[in-house]
Design a protein that fits this description.
Golvesin-related_Golgi, five-stranded parallel sheet, P-loop_NTPase, alpha/beta, 17 helices
Length: 404
């Protein structure tokens, strides 16, 4: 017997001792997740103050570009990250594409859809959702691109050429770039969590999981502290948008080995995300990273057909269902409502612990700078999400009520 909570599928163990441990772990996760909605109300608005102050300090490095079809010259150093094929945001496309240029709804409905899974942002829900959806509408099972197959997957894709007939659905943490292998309509979508809360959630999950992608321990087996974990993961989603698949191949082992620090595992035992982190940290200085962030922020609305935030997952499903003409809400809402961030109950009394954890991270300048790129991306995605909602509820749901 099994059940799903957040990014994990739990199987009831036969050993009583393991069952006790499992129940304790579940309790901890429920306490953590259901309290997220209370945390922001209890923590001062330190984050926005820090963001504004830091932006002022870095103002000379940020510029207001309109890249359109002419990317800045510095992006030629990261050619693999310059997406070549994608559908713009389904809801806001009219704003920036012009009435004669925006893609037809049929492109979104009939094209491939690619879920970019940001670790510990309820991606497990979407994986379960897409599997259920595929079975319900008789589509092939979604293709998973993750730590264990990323190098092989992209090597095979490259060998098959740049204009392939893709599968209907892809998902995983290394999917940004899949659409480049076809000239047919292809759309990315994603959902992300507030960066500080994602770090806490991933730390709680990973310190109890013996999984290679977690890397929550030092090379000597010592469990990292929360701050050490935050510094190690850093701006995880920013790097997902820039991941270079070759870095995870055998061909790059010696290169990555030369980048690693004394407390890092060997390159051969590193998860792909950490190899990518070491590689990007080596080839990009701080100024270059800020310039690339500027580029990313300008392109989020064109790269992603739909974006979501975990706080409003139910609305995110509505937006997906309307954009892709697939029954996301109908099939997956029950799964979402079983998620721990939707649970209410006596566990809210434990939220002070979580508030303290978040306050500890918010007060740390080093952690802030490590998460800065993801904080900026999260703020931009919030803005896009609000625009999507306004357009959807003003036009789509209003029209549905009128027709009834």
């Amino acid at each position: 017997m099994s059940f799903v909570i957040s990014n994990m599928r739990f199987h009831f163990p036969r050993n009583p001792g393991n069952l006790v441990f499992l129940i304790g772990s579940i309790f901890t996760l429920i306490v953590l997740a259901v309290s997220y909605r209370k945390i922001d109300k209890m923590v001062p608005e330190v984050r926005n103050v820090n963001i504004n102050k830091y932006n002022d300090q870095q103002s000379a490095l940020f510029s207001s570009h309109t890249y359109k079809d002419n990317p800045p010259t510095y992006m030629t150093n990261y050619a693999w990250a310059m997406q070549k094929n994608y559908l713009p945001n389904f809801y806001t496309r009219r704003v920036f594409s012009g009435t004669n240029r925006w893609p037809s709804d049929s492109f979104y409905a009939n094209g491939s859809i690619v879920f970019v899974d940001n670790h510990n942002s309820a991606g497990g829900v979407m994986k379960e959702c897409m599997s259920l959806l595929a079975a319900n509408v008789s589509l092939p099972k979604p293709t998973l691109v993750w730590n264990n197959n990323v190098a092989k997957f992209y090597s095979e894709m490259s060998g098959d050429g740049s204009n392939q007939l893709l599968e209907k659905m892809y998902l995983g943490g290394f999917t940004m770039g899949v659409c480049d292998y076809t000239n047919e309509p292809c759309s990315y979508f994603t959902v992300i969590r507030e960066p500080y809360e994602r770090i806490i959630a991933s730390y709680v999950y990973c310190k109890g999981a013996n999984e290679l992608p977690c890397l929550a321990r030092s090379a000597k087996g010592k469990l990292l502290t929360l701050k050490e974990w935050a510094m190690r993961q850093g701006s995880f989603f920013f790097r997902q948008l820039l991941h270079k698949p070759d870095v995870c191949s055998i061909a790059y082992l010696s290169t990555i080995e030369s980048f690693r620090q004394p407390d890092d595992p060997t390159a051969a035992t590193m998860p792909c995300w950490y190899r990518n982190k070491l590689y990007l940290d080596h080839i990009m200085d701080s100024q270059e990273k800020l310039k690339v962030l500027d580029f990313v922020l300008e392109h989020l609305e064109t790269w992603f057909g739909v974006v979501g935030i975990t706080e409003e997952y139910d609305t995110f499903l509505k937006l997906l269902q309307h954009a892709y003409k697939l029954p996301f809400e109908k099939i997956c809402l029950d799964t979402v409502e079983q998620e721990v961030f939707k649970t209410e109950g006596d566990y809210l009394s434990q939220s002070e612990l979580l508030v303290d954890l978040k306050r500890e991270l918010l007060a740390d300048q080093e952690v802030f700078e490590a998460l800065y790129f993801d904080i900026r991306i999260y703020q931009k995605i919030q803005e896009i999400f609000v625009s999507q909602k306004q357009i959807y509820f003003t036009n789509v749901e209003h029209q549905s009520r009128v027709e009834e």
